[in-house]
Structures are given as C-alpha cells and as structure tokens.
C-alpha cells in the first residue's frame, strides 16, 4: 500500500503527479506503474510515496528549526541548497530555459577543477544554471563553488544566500583553499563588465581581469575547464545603463531592458531563451614549471588561451543556433 | 624549559583566574603571581590555591617592582578585556592599551623576563564583505578597525611586536582567540545568546567560529609552560551560522533592518544587555573564521571541542531554557505525521 501511489518529484512529470494525487484522494488505490520520464537520475527520491515525502519534508523542517545541520567554513549549507535552492531553480533550468549541456565529461568527477565561463544577462542566471547543470546532470553530481564579487556579499539577503549556496569571495586564498580541497570552483572573470554589458555587445567577451584565476589554478595544480554559455545574453536585453541611478544605489550598473524598469516586477522575469552550456576540453596547468604562477607572461598567455577557447566556442554555438527562443 | 615564576595579569576574571588555577596544579611552576585591580571573588580565589595575589594596576609603575622583586621570568598577559562589562569605553581602552604599554615597559627593564604570552583576539582581522573565508596569521584586516576592542587588540599587538624588537631574547607568543564560549565564562557572546529574543541584522547571517573556554585555558597553559613563540590563531573546528546557533539555543531571532540598527542597539546598550558597538554589528553581519592549521602543526594543539560542541555545551551548561523546545518541535512533527497517516 505504501508504495502504491507514486508522485514523481521532478517537474518533468508534474501533470502525472497531479493525476495520481487526485485519484489518491478519491480513495482509489490502484497501483500505477512509475512514469519512466521522471526517473532520469534514479535514486530513491523519485520513487517515494507521498506520505514518505511529507515525512521527509517534516524532518527537513525540524532540522532547520532546531539548527541541526552542517555548514562548512565558507558558509556552504549543503542541505539547504539541495532541498530548497536547487529545486526552486530546476523549473527554470528544465522548462524556462530548456538548458542543453554539452561536454559534461570534460568536468572531472572527483578532483578539483576551475570552471571558467562567460558572464552575461544582467542578473547572474548563467551562474545559477551552470550550478544546476553540474549538480543534476554531471555523473558525479558535482557542486559548483562559485567565486563572487564583494558586492554580492555586501548586499543583504543576496549575500547570505550566496554564502549558503556555496559561493565565496573571489580572492586567491579562497580559490586556492577550495581547489586544494578538491572542490569544483566556478569563476566568471569578466565580472560586472561582462554581466552588465549592453545588448549590442552580446557574446563579445570582455577583458579577463588580471588573470588571478589562472594563478590560483596553477598554484593548486588543477585543470581549467572553459565553459561557454549561450542564451543568457537574451534573457534581459540590456538596452541602456542609467549611470546616475546606479551610482546613487551603489550598483555597478542600472539596466534598462524592454521590460525594466517601466514594467516594475514584470521586468525581472527573464525572457525564455533557449540555452546551451558547453564545457570544453580541460586545460592542464600542472605541467607548468615550479613558480609559474609568478610568471606574468605565462599567466596572461594561459588566460588568453582560455578566453579564446570560450569565444570560439560561443561563435560556433551561435552559428548552429537558428532561433533565440527555439534553439 | 619550564618557567619558575609566572605573572598572570587579569587574574580576577575568568580566564586569568582559571589559568592561574591550572598552573598551580603544575609542580614545575615554582611561583604564580596574579595581578588585578580588583580582588578575585572567593570561589575563584579558592581555586587559585597557592597563587599569590597582588592587588596592583598594571598601568601603575608599581608593576615593575613586582616583576623585578619576585624575579618573574614568564609574563602571561590575559587581562585585555572585551567590551562586555563596563560601558565606559575610554576606561577600558586605557586599561587595555596603556596597561599593556606599562607592563611591557616593566618587562623591558627586567633582566629576568624570558617569555611572554599575550592573549589577543581574532577581532584584529576585522569583519567585512571583502574578507577571505578564512584568515591565516599572515593576513591583516581589510579595513583597519577604528574603534573598540579590535582597535585595542591591534594596538596591543603592535606594542608587543615593538617589545619583541627591543628584547629579542624574550620569546613572545601571541594567541588570537576566536570568541570564547562555555558554561562558565561570561562574554559578549554568551550574554547575547542568553537573550530570549535575539536581535540580528535583517538579511545577513554571520559565520561564527567559537572556542570552548577549557580549550582556551589549555592553549594558554601550554604556551606558558612550553616555549612556542609565534602568532597563532586559536579556534574550534567548523562553524555555526548565527541563525543556526540561535536555533540550536532554542532562541527566537528578531531581524532588525540595518537602518533601524542604531536605535535598537542604543536601547540594548543603555539596558546594559549586550554590546552593540558598530564593530559588533559588523561582526554579526559578516562573521569571521580563522585558519588553525598553524595551531595544529606548529603549536601542537588540537581543540577538544568543535565550534558546535562548544556551543552545545554552553547551551546545556547554562541551562538556557529554550523558547523553542526540541520536544515541542518533535511533538509537532509527530502530530502532523500522525494526521497525515490518518488521512491516508
């Protein structure tokens, strides 16, 4: 009886869930074979009966209320991320942006690696979607630990959530500590120049900072995985930047999109573009000679190499794309 | 080589007094001299046993006489107070900074002093959104602390370093402690968590690293009897988020928007409930975690309590009656689960 009614937890089969739920409340106990589309990543979670789901949700709520959970030194709250933050992003990943990942095998399964990606889209949806991609679709279900600007941690709510979801400040000590601990670290070296660039500059990579990410990777001896994200540029076409308001609010830019700010909250709804996230061949850094991280020439060359790889991949993906929204 | 005559400052307070009590149990230590401006209360005095208490102010040159006359060879300076007790900042600053200067001047003149142990604080690293996740001993604060305890500690450390340059024959150990916690100790943080409703800053959640007071005493004792010069971060393993700690203590958080912080904090300060200096508020915004690798590998000490265990020990030991009791929460959970089971 307990496993008679099955509610798939994945939004991919939401209507199935509703149907079974209705038939269940009517007292109909006919066992219904589990919908195969929902079980794309196995594990027991997808096969729970609804009372087990309720029990698990209750246990989760109890642990949260009593503070009975683990947080690492960076403030990463794995339980909150897996139970609350990722599930709320999953519909966007699967339904809204219909993200397709390419080359996930290029991301190492166990060891540390540095994922370097292009940044775009006014709000960092690209970072969130890359996290979902690696967590849900990488065979080793890897948690991406992102490096963010200090502005992120200065802001209320956003800063606290960023730390809880595993982000930390983009600085070399943190990057090396994470990489040395075998974590998968994500970095968006274009920073605000990339995410806040005008729509006409879409898919043109901006300057890659000072190459601090390269020296961190060399020091930790981990490979750099270039990651190219197509689709994020179109979610909020940034038509203009009102600098005085940005200065007033202490923000790096204040965007004007077709829907923002004149439509208010509606303007924060991203356009449903079709996304592709491609992970390229890892670039080895461990073969460099000792002390290579202090050689600015080598660091800049490597940084350029990563940048070129991402830019070329972007152009290739764009050439294959026929429609912004349909892919 | 074990010290013969140890001078402990701030002996009337918990850390100084308990350290003296621990040292009395060590037969290698010949004499223990405790100094403070006020006499320790009776229970502490009893625990201190053979410690000789000298009522003296370290700001007074008299301290020099104490050091020379009794041939002190090890000075343990733990009197640096946080801003928990007195509301008067200038007095405290004078005690912390000028007291240390006077003490160092006395030590510099004394030919017998060979070792100095200073209890500092990880507050010297400050707290800001630009902080790395963990501070190592070589890092400095992103913004120099402009007032309060952190500023005092930074100045004290500066004077101690200067003393080290002038007396290179003296081995100096500076211990940067994270927030001490435990059933018996009274600090800013223990008072804060004893409030039934705990004001926090809306939208921020600090990472807290704590150290059990017993671990702190053990570290101080080890630094006193062994010779391990250097600067060491001392903190428990792991962290608790502020929100998590409040929940574990069964308290209710009261998030206050940052704009309303100053009226609320002035209320708490005038009510003498908790310290709510801007520095403390920054700490509660961003928190601070230190790397204790050097403590483990060079100093040779691993804290016996993790941050979480130390905090739980504090909650149990203080007998804080939880506002949100775990039993009630479990009962609610069972109730809902039961209702769900009946529904099926």
What are the low-pLDDT stretches of chain B, counting only 5+ consecutive residues below 50?
A: none
List the helices and strands of chain B in order: EHEHEHEHEHEEHEEEHEEHEHHHHH
**Cα-atom Rg of chain A, whole angstroms?**
21 Å
- Give a short account of the largest sheet of chain B: 7 strands, parallel
In total, the number of domains of chain B comes to: 1
Task: Give an account of the 3D structure.
Chain B: This is UDP-glucose 4-epimerase. Chain B: InterPro entries: Epimerase_deHydtase, Lipid_A_modif_metabolic_enz, NAD(P)-bd_dom_sf. Chain B: It comes from Halopolyspora algeriensis. Chain B: Residues 6-235 form the NAD-dependent epimerase/dehydratase domain. The complex is a heterodimer of chains A (327) and B (344). With 327 residues, chain A is of the alpha/beta class. Chain A folds into 2 domains: 11-66, no CATH class; 78-235 and 270-320, no CATH class. Chain A contains 11 helices and 9 strands. Chain A has a 7-stranded mixed β-sheet with strand order 1-9-6-2-5-3-4, with helices on both faces. A two-stranded antiparallel ribbon of chain A has the order 7-8. Chain A is globular, with a radius of gyration of 21 Å. Chain B has one domain (5-326): NAD(P)-binding Rossmann-like Domain (Rossmann fold). Chain B has 13 helices and 13 strands. In chain B, the strands form 4 sheets. Chain B has a 7-stranded parallel β-sheet, sandwiched between helices. In chain B, strands 7-10 form a two-stranded parallel sheet. In chain B, strands 8-13 form a two-stranded parallel ribbon. Chain B is globular and about 80 Å long. Classes of the chains: A alpha/beta (327), B alpha/beta (344).
């Amino acid at each position: 009886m307990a496993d008679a009614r099955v509610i798939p937890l994945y939004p991919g089969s939401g209507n199935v869930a509703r149907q079974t739920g209705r038939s269940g409340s009517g007292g109909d106990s006919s066992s219904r074979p589990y919908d195969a589309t929902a079980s794309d990543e196995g594990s027991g979670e997808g096969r729970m009966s609804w009372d087990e789901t309720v029990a698990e949700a209750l246990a989760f709520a109890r642990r949260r209320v009593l503070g009975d959970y683990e947080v690492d030194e960076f403030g990463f709250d794995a339980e909150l991320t897996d139970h609350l933050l990722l599930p709320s992003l999953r519909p966007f990943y699967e339904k809204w942006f219909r993200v397709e990942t390419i080359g996930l095998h290029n991301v190492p399964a166990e060891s540390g690696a540095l994922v370097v990606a292009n940044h775009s889209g006014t709000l960092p949806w690209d970072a969130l979607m890359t996290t979902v991609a690696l967590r849900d679709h990488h065979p080793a279900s890897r948690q991406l630990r992102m490096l963010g600007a200090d502005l992120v941690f200065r802001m209320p709510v956003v800063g606290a959530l960023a730390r809880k979801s595993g982000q930390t400040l983009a600085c070399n000590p943190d990057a090396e500590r994470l990489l040395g601990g075998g974590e998968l670290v994500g970095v968006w070296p274009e920073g605000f120049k990339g995410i806040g660039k005008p729509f006409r500059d879409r898919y043109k990579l901006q300057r890659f900072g000072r190459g601090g990410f390269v020296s961190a990777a060399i020091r930790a001896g981990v490979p750099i995985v270039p990651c190219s994200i197509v689709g994020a540029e179109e979610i909020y076409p940034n038509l203009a930047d009102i600098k005085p308001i940005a200065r007033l609010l202490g923000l790096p830019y204040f965007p004007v999109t077709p829907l923002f700010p004149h439509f208010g909250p509606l303007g924060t709804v991203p356009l449903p573009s079709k996304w592709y996230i491609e992970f390229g061949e890892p670039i080895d850094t461990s073969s460099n000679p000792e002390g290579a991280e202090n050689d600015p020439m080598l660091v800049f060359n490597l940084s350029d190499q990563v940048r070129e790889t991402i830019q070329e991949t972007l152009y290739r993906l764009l050439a294959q794309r026929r429609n912004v929204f349909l892919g | 080589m074990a010290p013969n005559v140890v001078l402990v400052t701030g002996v009337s307070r918990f850390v100084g007094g308990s350290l003296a009590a621990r040292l009395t149990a060590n037969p290698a230590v010949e004499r223990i001299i405790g100094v403070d401006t006020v006499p320790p209360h009776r229970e502490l005095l009893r625990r201190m046993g053979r410690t000789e208490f000298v009522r003296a102010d370290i700001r007074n040159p008299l301290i020099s006489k104490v050091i020379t006359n009794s041939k002190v060879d090890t000075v343990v300076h733990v009197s640096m107070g946080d801003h928990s007790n007195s509301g008067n900042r200038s007095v405290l600053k004078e005690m912390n900074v000028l007291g240390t200067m006077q003490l160092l001047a006395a030590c510099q003149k004394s030919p017998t002093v060979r070792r100095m142990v200073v209890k500092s604080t990880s507050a010297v690293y400050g707290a800001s959104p630009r902080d790395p996740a963990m501070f190592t001993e070589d890092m400095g604060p992103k913004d120099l602390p402009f007032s309060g305890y952190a500023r005092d500690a930074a100045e004290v450390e500066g004077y101690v370093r200067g003393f080290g340059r002038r007396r290179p024959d003296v081995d100096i150990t500076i211990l940067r402690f994270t927030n001490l916690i435990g059933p018996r100790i009274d600090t800013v943080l223990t008072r804060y968590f004893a409030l039934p409703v705990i004001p926090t800053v809306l939208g921020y959640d600090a990472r807290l690293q704590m150290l059990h007071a017993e671990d702190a005493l053990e570290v101080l004792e080890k630094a006193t009897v062994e010779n391990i010069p250097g600067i060491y971060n001392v903190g428990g393993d792991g962290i608790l988020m502020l929100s998590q700690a409040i929940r574990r203590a069964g308290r209710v958080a009261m998030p206050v928007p940052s704009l309303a912080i100053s009226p609320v904090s002035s209320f708490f300060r005038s009510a003498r409930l908790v310290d709510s200096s801007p520095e403390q508020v920054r700490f509660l915004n961003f928190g601070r975690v230190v790397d204790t690798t050097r403590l483990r590998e060079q100093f040779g000490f691993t804290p016996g309590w993790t941050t979480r265990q130390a905090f739980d020990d504090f909650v149990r030991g203080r007998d804080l009656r939880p506002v949100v009791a775990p039993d009630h929460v479990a009962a609610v959970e069972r109730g809902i689960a039961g209702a769900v089971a009946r529904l099926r």
